[in-house]
Design brief:
CATH topology: Beta-clip-like
CATH class: Mainly Beta
Number of strands: 12
CATH architecture: Beta Complex
Number of helices: 2
Helix content: under 10%
Oligomer: single chain
Strand content: 25-35%
CATH superfamily: SET domain
Strand order of the largest sheet: 1-2-10-7
Structural class: mainly beta
Number of domains: 1
């Protein structure tokens, strides 16, 4: 995890199980963490375990690292600007939970979505596939989506 490892730590999250938190003030634009894990095809994914869709039929399985514990928010403080590198979208306070919008990675036609409990004032109430978001939400999130989604939804 390189330099980013000193910026973050994992602990219990009030939102969902464990989460990733800032060790100190992190400036907007800072690389927070790089997502890693074995590359899998959809038929290889255990959907009860951590996974991250990175292409049409391509997923990252669990890495065993902090990236497996970054939680969702409809008002995230992190986004994907450089491939699998999560960057701070704004200044992040010490001990603040690091989050990203899971809809910025998911693009499955048959994904049923799941209830969101992020607590943000702008909470959409459900985490959906990027393709099933309202057009204005997709356009707002597109700069922070994974590259395969930014390319698909130009």
């Amino acid at each position: 995890m390189g330099e980013a490892a000193v910026l973050i730590y994992v602990r219990e999250s009030p939102q969902h199980g464990r989460g990733v938190f800032a060790t100190g003030l992190i400036a907007a634009g800072t690389a927070l963490i790089t997502f890693r894990g074995p590359l899998l095809r959809r038929e290889q994914v255990d959907f009860q375990d951590y996974h991250l869709q990175v292409g049409d039929d391509l997923y990252l399985g669990p890495s065993g690292g902090a990236d497996d514990f970054v939680n969702h928010s409809c008002a995230p403080n992190g986004g994907f600007a450089d491939g699998l590198v999560l960057r701070a979208l704004r200044d992040i306070a010490a001990n603040e939970e690091i989050t990203w919008d899971y809809s910025c990675a998911i693009d499955e036609a048959d994904f049923p979505g799941f209830a969101c409990a992020c607590g943000a004032a702008s909470c959409r109430g459900i985490v959906r596939s990027f393709r099933h978001l309202e057009p204005e939400v997709r356009e707002r999130l597109r700069p922070w989506a994974l590259p395969y989604l930014r390319d698909r939804y130009r």
